[in-house]
Specification:
With 295 residues, the chain is mainly β. It has one helix and 27 strands.
């Protein structure tokens, strides 16, 4: 479904029903969308979607018609990242599957048509709209973050991925990890921020710790226990942290010392920017909080 900014329905495309009619797919199944991104734009600037299904990527044109598909080496396809038009590798696609080998890499081809390559599955040659060229080992588990990042040490480009078991920075030039942080973790939330003008990943987990990971090398450069399992972390424009736990919301100053708190029994949070948090209470009611600037 596509919606207008006012919430009204613009298009409803029956992708699963259309996919059932195809006879060129042996491996992969599409009955739900687990991830979505724009892989191309037509001559009028309309977005063309790529959808992550079960063991399959499905490519659409701007009118919602299926123009091709690609096999995924694993089940559910999450975290589709497409290199933007401003990059030399524009159109390259990276996809994470949490229960297989890791990150899948599909290079772009000239033009908007199919790659012309096939995936050999016994006696069946499955067409690949974009060919799977590499599977890059990573961590299993629930996805928490997947973003393009800018690092001076990796001018050709880098991707940041995080799961409940750890995180890492992937070089788009080498298709290998600049660093990985793994083991002994049970993360609930990850966001990106800065400490002393250096890019960091802000991580929080069930153990009640909040930590800052230097994106350049994966070192943990700051760590603090906040007293309860962490649900969310966001950074304000002045560098403060808003840390949401099962016990409420805390504000930490730029040295990560507590300077305010709000006691609530919470089970989920969504940071909306501008010091606003949408929180879910233990009784499953939701509340929009706007934290004042003196926090």
């Amino acid at each position: 479904h596509l919606y207008r900014p006012d919430g009204s329905l613009r298009h409803a495309w029956q992708i699963a029903a259309k996919f059932l009619q195809r006879d060129d797919c042996l491996q992969g199944w599409f009955n739900a969308t687990h991830s979505i991104n724009i892989w191309n734009r037509d001559e009028n600037g309309r977005g063309c979607f790529v959808l992550g299904g079960y063991g399959i990527l499905v490519f659409l044109n701007a009118d919602g018609d299926i123009v091709g598909h690609s096999f995924v080496d694993g089940p559910w396809s999450y975290n589709i990242l497409v290199a933007p038009e401003s990059r030399a590798d524009r159109g390259d696609i990276y996809v994470r599957c949490g229960w297989n080998h890791g990150i899948m890499y599909y290079p772009a081809v000239p033009g908007n048509g199919p790659s012309g390559e096939v995936y050999h599955l016994g006696g069946f040659n499955q067409p690949m709209f974009r060919m799977l060229k590499r599977v890059i080992p990573f961590l299993n588990g629930r996805s928490l973050a997947a973003e393009w990042i800018n690092l001076p040490t990796l001018p050709e480009g880098a991707l940041f991925f995080a799961t409940e078991l750890g995180s890492g920075v992937l070089s788009t030039a080498t298709k290998d990890w600049q660093w990985k942080l793994e083991g002994g973790m049970s993360l609930n939330t990850v966001s990106l921020g800065q400490i002393e003008d250096q890019p960091v990943a802000l991580i929080g987990g069930m153990d009640g710790f909040v930590a800052a990971v230097d994106l350049r090398d994966g070192r943990i450069i700051r760590r603090r226990h906040v007293g309860a399992p962490v649900l969310g972390i966001s950074q304000t424009a002045v560098g403060k942290l808003l840390v949401t736990t099962h016990a409420g919301v805390q504000s930490l100053d730029d040295n990560w010392l507590p300077d305010n708190s709000l006691s609530l029994r919470l089970n989920r949070v969504l940071a909306l920017g501008d010091n606003r948090l949408l929180v879910s209470h233990e009784d499953d009611t939701i509340e929009l909080l706007e934290l004042q600037t003196n926090w």
